[in-house]
Write a structure and sequence with these properties.
With 341 residues, the protein is α/β, with parallel strands linked by helices. It folds into three domains: 101 residues, ATPase, nucleotide binding domain (Nucleotidyltransferase, domain 5); 89 residues; 115 residues, no CATH class. It is 54% helix and 13% strand. The strands form two sheets. It has a five-stranded mixed beta sheet with strand order 3-2-1-4-5, sandwiched between helices. Strands 6-7 form a two-stranded antiparallel sheet. The radius of gyration is 25 Å and the shape is globular.
């Protein structure tokens, strides 16, 4: 099997094709958009490239044409020799990758399926809409504080209306434009939420996850799209570690201590699980896992208890998805004497 290494660029990519014995057969630059044509012209080969923004698209194109792919993590390529001795260029990088591929079977990052990637894109765009609206709301609040304007409390959906009521005829045109944009962003967020609800309603795994307290459509879709498949993980603890919800460890010589949670993996899903834990504590106060978190709170404080509940919830959701079951409080009840890290 030949080995094709690609140093991917936004416009042009450098390729290096080697024979199974390591002999360089072809080196050149190609337009990144023309890579599918290149793949079609080659016999089944091992295609190696560094993880980047285009990596999943390239992986799909290569697999579709019968190639074996290796998407190499960015943390690994430097260890292979890319950028060594202060010399780094596209041709050298492609050569190093192709040579390493000939010598060893390079480990590849996981490539999620297309459905999961599309759902994660929806969630990312929703985050962008919410962040933009929050920034504009804060900008208007800053303007109001500079003029000692107070408005009645309410939800963010009514923010623009409450500002107009408080300012009456004295509302500047520039602030009015921002308020209109806030309203438009709210409409787009609502439309996205409705679409996510429909996705969760039609997805069997999401419906099972939403049977757990505190878990709604957004959390369920984010969980399923981030994990992609249960077969990737050996156990619930593996999932909790993958999501960065388990304590870290620092051990060197005679020093050994536990640290806070590692915060590895998806920041979005970890934050959503913490919010789900807050919701479960508020809406299902008598649920066994919530009662367990309250026992933890007595010893470690509320913040640690909420994170511990988020970790517990991540494991329970994995079990529901893996076993094809619905949430049962008695079956998922942790022992009250359990401790939290």
């Amino acid at each position: 099997m030949d080995h094709l290494a690609i140093d991917v660029g936004g416009r042009e990519s450098q390729i290096c094709l080697r024979s199974p014995t390591g002999e360089i057969m072809r080196e050149k630059k190609v337009r990144t958009q023309d890579l599918p044509t290149l793949f079609a012209s080659l016999p089944p080969s091992r295609v190696v490239f560094e993880a980047c923004a285009e990596s999943f698209w390239i992986a799909d194109c290569a697999v579709e044409r019968g190639h074996d792919i290796r998407v190499v993590a960015s943390t690994l390529v430097m260890a292979l020799g890319i950028g060594s001795r202060g010399i780094k260029n596209d041709r050298k990088d492609a050569r190093v990758l192709s040579e390493a591929s000939c010598r060893i079977d390079l480990p590849s990052i996981y490539v999620p399926n297309l459905v999961s990637r599309e759902r994660k894109t929806m969630l990312s765009m929703r985050d962008a809409l919410v962040s933009s609206r929050t920034a504009m709301v804060n900008a208007v609040r800053g303007w109001m504080r500079g003029r000692a304007i107070r408005i009645r409390t309410g939800e963010v959906d009514t923010f623009s209306r409450r500002v107009r009521e408080a300012c009456a005829e004295a509302l500047p045109i520039a602030i009015g434009r921002v308020l209109e944009t806030i309203e438009h962003l709210g409409q787009q967020i609502d439309a996205t939420d409705k679409e996510l609800k429909q996705i969760a309603k039609k997805d069997d795994a999401c419906r099972r996850l939403m049977s757990a307290p505190g878990v709604g459509p957004i959390v369920a879709v984010a969980y399923v799209s981030t994990l992609d498949t249960t077969s990737r993980f050996e156990s619930a603890h593996h999932v909790q570690s993958y999501l960065g919800l388990t304590p870290g460890e620092y051990a060197s010589s005679d020093k050994h201590r536990r640290t806070g949670i590692t915060k590895a993996g998806s920041t979005r899903l970890r934050w959503l699980l913490v919010q789900a834990a807050h919701t479960a504590r508020r809406c299902a106060p008598n649920d066994p896992m919530v009662l367990w978190s309250k026992e933890v709170e007595k010893r470690r404080g509320k913040r640690v208890a909420v994170v511990a509940l988020a970790r517990k919830l991540a494991g329970i959701l994995f079990a529901l998805w893996r076993d094809g079951t619905l949430y049962s409080p008695l079956e998922n009840a942790p022992p009250l004497e359990a401790t939290a890290a």
